Amino acid sequence: MKLIVGLGNPGRKYDQTRHNIGFVVVDKVASLVSASPSKVKFEGLLAEALISGEKAALLWPQTYMNASGQSVRKALDFYKLEAKDVLVVCDDLNLPCGKIRLKANGSAGGQKGLADTIRHLQTDEFARLKIGIGRPPEGWEVTDYVLGRFSSTENEAIEDAATVAARAAICWATDGATIAMNRHNAEEKKETKTKRTNGTSKKPTTEPKRP
């Protein structure tokens, strides 16, 4: 069995904010695999599904980002899973907006929900799928930026990235971390190379609008 966790903050106030891209991706996974309706469990919203015959649970912690780990820990214990059976999906300030990166393990890299998950699981040996949201423009506070919504110029890239990330999460669940990383991280590099060859990788001339 596999556990796919999307990190974010609960409530309409935070809906579709940069920090909630993990929720968005797991929503897409749920749609693609026809997951059962979500129910309240493990201090989060939980749905179950079969992914190519493999049992999977989808979890949206409702503890707020900085306390995500306690929800993940409860689900892990209930299903009697190991850390390697967990994939955490979250935003990443250190990746350009719309870029994705799947890793089998590693540090939190400053992502507080990821850090809390590492603290509660007492290991960083679980997979994580990061979706880039870019760095805040000069003069912005990081908190204001991550809790803001994507600009109109970012929306298309984020929508595409969320779909690709959802497919990468499904690949992880069915084929494992190594195959998923080789396939989806390689596709990301190939796409970037193609854009450069076609001369379409120029930096945007305008900064994202402040929400």
UniProtKB/TrEMBL annotation:
The record marks 9 as: Discriminates between blocked and unblocked aminoacyl-tRNA. NCBIfam families: pth. Pfam families: Pept_tRNA_hydro (PF01195). It is an enzyme of class 3 (hydrolase). InterPro entries: Pept_tRNA_hydro, Pept_tRNA_hydro_CS, Pept_tRNA_hydro_sf. It comes from Rubripirellula tenax. Monomer. GO terms for biological process: protein quality control for misfolded or incompletely synthesized proteins; rescue of stalled ribosome. Keywords: Cytoplasm, Hydrolase, RNA-binding, tRNA-binding. Belongs to the PTH family. Hydrolyzes ribosome-free peptidyl-tRNAs (with 1 or more amino acids incorporated), which drop off the ribosome during protein synthesis, or as a result of ribosome stalling. Catalyzes the release of premature peptidyl moieties from peptidyl-tRNA molecules trapped in stalled 50S ribosomal subunits, and thus maintains levels of free tRNAs and 50S ribosomes. GO terms for cellular component: cytoplasm. The keyword RNA-binding applies. This is Peptidyl-tRNA hydrolase. It catalyses: an N-acyl-L-alpha-aminoacyl-tRNA + H2O = an N-acyl-L-amino acid + a tRNA + H(+). TRNA binds at residues 14, 64, 66. Its EC number is 3.1.1.29. Gene3D superfamilies: Peptidyl-tRNA hydrolase.
